[in-house]
Amino acid sequence: MKTAKLGQISTTFLLVFAYFIVAAASFNGYFAKWAFRDTDPRFSIDLMLDGTAYRPAVYRQLIPQIANFLDKEISPSIREEIVNISKNLNDNCTNYGFWQCPFDLYKPARKGSLKPEYMFRYSIVYIITFASLLISMFLLKEVCTEVSKSNISGTLAPICFALILPIIFTRGGYFYDFFELMFMSIAFLLTLHKRYIWILPITLVATLNKESFPLFILALIPLVQAFMSRFKLLMFISSNIFIAAIVNFIGKSTYAKNPGSNMDYQLVDNIKFYLHPLDYLFSFEWTYGMYLPKGFSIFILLALFIIIFKSWPSLERPIKQHSLFALAITIPLFTLFCYRDELRNLSMLYISFNIMIAVYLKDILDRNIEIQGSSGLMVEVNQGERDDKDLSPEGTE
Fold this sequence. Notes:
Blueprint: H1 2-34, H2 45-50, H3 62-73, H4 76-92, H5 118-148, H6 151-168, H7 175-192, H8 199-209, H9 213-219, H10 221-224, H11 230-254, H12 267-274, E1 284-287, E2 290-293, H13 298-311, H14 317-337, H15 350-391, H16 393-396
Antiparallel strand pairs: 1-2
Helix pairs in contact: 1-5, 1-6, 3-5, 5-6, 5-7, 5-15, 6-15, 7-8, 8-11, 9-11, 9-14, 13-15
């Protein structure tokens, strides 16, 4: 009994340690590329914290509001201690070529706009954004394990996906992307466990993080409809949409006078861009300190095609339908409003992609087990044949 408990504790420790290291590598890969868009005059972190950023980015206020709340409520001594830690780390960091120390926070082009009073809140945004990525990995593990019915592939899939994330952040990367992943993972997991009522508060806070979240709820319909009457399904969807509409209305009303627009229309630019495949099929950029493929490069598209092609036949019908629903919602939004060559805008397909990775890995593991099992069986058969031969009259001569 004690040995089993000790084994479980050690396994859990190793899993947490491994996920933490992978999340740290992934987050650093993202942060080295984009930080919190510190130098951008439209939606840098200081503007987001002050609520003066351009629309529509300024609507994504969940994390900035948390940081502002903690800045007011936490005692000055604790704030000062966190600021001192950040300053000390900043002073001790060294710039290594393409890599920049994550706590080298205040060396953007717009130095004048980043005042010392932002450092505590900046640190809070940094900490909770990383935490949301780490939590997302554990949530995705539960989702992938349950759907793929394999603990091994379910554990490996979030690791693969987390390491891919900085590559997906091609034209930009934002702190609310990680919270969006966490909220989608929670909503999907609650759906799998048929705890639909708990999705309502998730929709409330997730919409404050990113206004497109209720569209992900629509993509959950194939997973919900088998367990609900039409009336209950209608109530479930309408309740979530109603809550999201209120949050969106408040957000848009609060920041109606900010510069920018409710949505950025990109259709014409997207058409021009995608009509010239050579501009993106062989494109590269620096990620993880290496010159890696970016966006819709042929290498990324090929990897996506292999994973989808190999895993799709093994997916259960509700998962396929959810993926197709998410794709149907995403494609028009991606074409009309999303900046070109930006895979992060396919975020409603993140959960499906994690599941596909898990299913693909499970198929590989199962095939290897079958091959090894067949080889072992052949060894036993051959050994049996040799034993029979040794016992035969010819063998005794």
